[in-house]
Amino acid sequence: MKAITIKPNNIGVEVKDVEIREQLRKGQALIKTVMTGICGTDRGIVSGKISFAYPPEGYTYLVLGHEGLGRVEETGEDVNELKKGDYVVPVVRRGCGECLNCKIGRQDFCETGKFVEAGIRGKHGFMREEFVDDEKYLVKVPEEVRDVAVLTEPLSNVVKAIDELLFLQRRMIWTCEDSTLECRNAYIVGTGPIGTFFAMVLRTLGLQVFMLNRREPSDIEAYISEKIGATFYDTRKGLEGLPEADLIVDTSGVPEAFIPLMKKLKHNSALVLFGTVEGEKAEFVSDLVTEIVEKNILIMGSVNASKKDFQGALNYLSIWKYRYGDVLTRMITRVVSIEEAPNVLTKKVKGEVKTVIKWS
User: 27 among the known binding-site residues?
Assistant: First the structure.
């Protein structure tokens, strides 16, 4: 079958015929790939800038792709919830089998670090014509969002991070006098797919959202921000035009992008670190440490998601399908063929929000 592969820690990507040793077993389903999304992690692996990618045991290559959407073609014995024709999204991370978190389906909080991740570490991904997977790692897609369900995986990470944030902010009363979160201001640093999803979820929860970038918005960014009721802000104008913040979410991974913003944080506010980039530096001075302490500022990092977060993401997609009209379909700014994929995996196209590969 055709697959998009890389040799970890080497620059480059190729489409080639592969033979992967998978057999349909009890509790498993054969999935025909429909679409796969492309994200910064994929491009980081292809460029050789992400060093932690490695192939499964017994293979010299890794099949890319962790943002998958597929259709069930066949089921094995003891598959109870899925049937042929169902659309599914696969969970990315698979647990170590040793720590308690992994044993209860919370491999996103693995304690040993021995997990594998499809298309990233130790497990072939979904940029291939078909794959076999356990039913417990497959999330059934509601019919009304099949056309945008390829967005589920990135959104699941956002759902998980915000769930963590709301749990931790129970350390005090964070709601407004009217019991909502409408008096709270959130900065989202970075306006790619993840930043856009953070903005959409936080607006759904009622927060006032400011989407920050060092440029004017593209046409699609302007459309989305207006549609969801967020404010797109060009930080080159200075910070004076921004209100004080109750929350900063960094999706850039660039310290010099979010550290200057921290002086705008209120008492009892929070900083969520989500983006990752290697090699970037910025000064973190003791005065800022003092301010973090004196203001009770929470700093948390978040990565990956569990199956329940994938289900939560699909629920948001269903809500937004009716609330925001064509915003979700507009987020998919480009659909490419398998043969075109290597070109778009090497560089981001101007104006891109999300590029996806169509398989069937």
Answer: no
| 180 known ligand binder | no
Q: What pairs with residue 123 in β-bridges?
A: 118
318 annotated to a ligand binding site: no
pLDDT tens track for 153-206 = 999 999 999 999 999 999 999 999 999 999 999 999 999 999 999 999 999 999
226-263 pLDDT, tens digit per residue, is: 999 999 999 999 999 999 999 999 999 999 999 999 99
According to DSSP, the residues that pair with 355 across neighbouring strands are 38, 334
State the Cα–Cα distance between residues 208 and 194, nearest whole angstrom: 17
- Strands (DSSP E) found in the chain: 2-6, 14-17, 28-38, 62-63, 67-75, 87-90, 93-94, 116-118, 122-123, 130-134, 138-140, 185-189, 208-213, 231-234, 245-250, 265-273, 298-301, 332-336, 354-358
**Is 274 marked as binding a ligand?**
yes
213 annotated among ligand-binding-site residues: yes
The domains located in the chain, with CATH, are 2-151+329-358 (3.90.180.10), 173-295 (3.40.50.720)
Report whether 56 belongs to an annotated binding site. no
Q: 275: annotated binding-site residue? A: yes
- pTM for this predicted structure: 0.96
Distance, CA of 109 to CA of 106 (rounded, Å): 6
Asked if residue 157 belongs to a known ligand binding site, the reply is: yes
Q: Is 243 left (phi over 0), alpha (psi -120 to 50) or beta?
A: beta
196 carries a ligand binding annotation: no
304 known ligand binder:
yes
Per the annotation, does 348 bind a ligand?
yes
Q: Is position 356 annotated in a ligand binding site?
A: no
Ligand-binding site membership of 41 (annotated): yes
